[in-house]
Amino acid sequence: MGHPCARPTLGCGARSAAWIDIDDEVLAEAMRLSGARAKEETVNALREYAERRRRAPDRPKHLRATRDRDEESFGRPHAVEKGAS
Question: Measured in whole angstroms, how far is the alpha carbon of residue 72 from the centre of its chain?
Answer without folding.
Answer: 30
